[in-house]
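Quick question: what would this complex look like in 3D?
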Amino acid sequence: MNIVVCVKYVPDATADRQFESDNTVDRVGVDGLLSELDEYGVEQSLQIKEKAGDDTTVTALCVGPEKALDAVRKALQMGADKGVHVIDDAIAGSDAAATSLVLAKAIEKLGAETPVDLVVGGLASTDAGMSVVPAMLAERLGLPQVTLASVVEFQGDQVRIKRDGDTATEVVGGTMPLVLSVTDQSGEARYPSFKGIMAAKKKPLETWSLSDLGVDAGEVGADAAWTEVVETTARPPRTAGEIVKDEDGSGAKALADFLASKKFI
Amino acid sequence: MSEVLVVIDHVDGAVKKPTYELLTIAKRLGEPSAVFIGPADKSGEVADKVKKYGAEKVYVIDDAQLKGYLVAPKAEALQQLAEKSSPAAILIPSSAEGKEIAGRLSIKLESGLITDAVDVQEGPVTTQSVFAGNFTVQAKVTKGTPIITVKPNSAAPEEAEGAGAVEEFSPTISDAAKTAQIVASQPRQATGRPELTEAAIVVSGGRGTGGNFEPVEAFADALGAAVGASRAAVDSGWMPHSFQVGQTGKTVSPQLYVANGISGAIQHRAGMQTSKTIVAVNKDEEAPMFELVDFGVVGDLHTVLPAATEEINKRKG
Ligand SMILES: Cc1cc2nc3c(=O)[nH]c(=O)nc-3n(C[C@H](O)[C@H](O)[C@H](O)COP(=O)(O)OP(=O)(O)OC[C@H]3O[C@@H](n4cnc5c(N)ncnc54)[C@H](O)[C@@H]3O)c2cc1C
Ligand SMILES: Nc1ncnc2c1ncn2[C@@H]1O[C@H](COP(=O)(O)O)[C@@H](O)[C@H]1O
């Protein structure tokens, strides 16, 4: 089986994330890493490989700047077999639509020899967090979309997932090839082992540019984006609130007083 | 004036409140046309409801041939409706399903997509809250028909009588759109409390509950609030995932958010930081949650909450 898992390099959520003066996400000044939510995609890909057998390859695919190679490396350390990093100055400032275009072209290229059976994505990137790229990929690739899985099962070329929807829990099924995305409920992601870290250094890693994919530079990047951020404003810090210590039930009374003063009671 | 398509948020024809918020927003941008994708026999009652909030037209797309499949057929139906009606914008509820429909529609129509708007004004110019609520971003669509997914509580619904003219629309659904099948579906059980994302007050519990949510629930009920939980509480199996607030759970923006036994990790803040008033009960005065609060009690939730519940019930008389 040929599995491609899409992994994104994102600014660390626990760091002080910022915007550039052109309103794009600062991806250089802030330490970045493989989006935690994409670790779950890597994990599920590896579990599928472990069940399917040895002729399965898992390729970690990332579109991003130079440092984004870290995300691919982490996926290789976890156990992916192969890495592809798509990097091109023209890609900077791309929106979800353009990102999905580049990913789709890279997936097509990866499938040129052996067709891709499974494209795996995460619940959302932890920076933009739109949760739309896998759906866009399914649309672009003309593949079934079996997304937001909390449980993944497969047998032969049949995939079944549990999806905890907004109003119902659903079981969704499809036939490979398809696009799968998984949530952080799908099962703990493994840590790279020492052996995994050493092995990753020898794994094949390719770097592709837009011309390798046959994508015109004019189709991607900030200028070609279908949306524009016109302004970014840091949220004003909240003014310090009143904090009381509970002593002999005083806290409950003070809390009720506060709620009453704000007309919540 | 151009039409603005508003996809109705409903469960089996029971219209949900975000629909009225979207219609109110749509009026700022053009003439609201509500789109009902659901059982056609419910279209009459749905039309009666949405016209009270300004729907001039109500497109009815019977979901008989759509509902067994995941999102793709709905995106196809909306594409065809958009091509027919040339709307000024398309507004979709910002749910997991809504966003995926919007994503596919964006590619189909080659139109820009903005997700998770918390406000939409003329232009349309949208406002989103990003980086765990630490930044506010204003954005607009620069290509095609603006497709915007809008979060609950993004506008105060305003009543305005619309014509509510019902028009059937029968899309042609391709076989390619019917490839992800919904094999089984189990509706979520009603809690009897307000819905988390729509509630005016949310009372949440975290690891500090030690697994006993009773004080949290009783306090919530005294305030008529929805109940939420941190991921630690969900991962421990104390509450279902649908109660989770945060980056990988629900984003809430109520008038009042009460965090009990929740430390205030960035991923939790991401789901509640834009709440108007924030209150916390935590026995650790160093808990980061206290940086966000308007009012905080340093104390044990197992004693503070029951006493506060009693006090509130007494005052309510
Ligand atoms: C990719 C990713 C996504 C995530 N998404 C989410 C998300 O969506 N939502 C989310 O919540 N978290 C999320 N997390 C997890 C998050 O980082 C925290 O681990 C989690 O929020 C901690 O939950 P907690 O505050 O209940 O537990 P803890 O951090 O353990 O805090 C418990 C608090 O309870 C207090 N306490 C203990 N006993 C009492 C008592 N008797 N009375 C009063 N206070 C008491 C303690 O002082 C402490 O402050 C995510 C993490 C990652 C990496
Ligand atoms: N630049 C990227 N490179 C690789 N994968 C990506 C990229 N952007 C998004 N993805 C994938 O799409 C998923 C959803 O992203 P988003 O729609 O941005 O929230 C992520 O979890 C990734 O699996």
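Answer marked as accepted. The mean pLDDT of chain A is 94.
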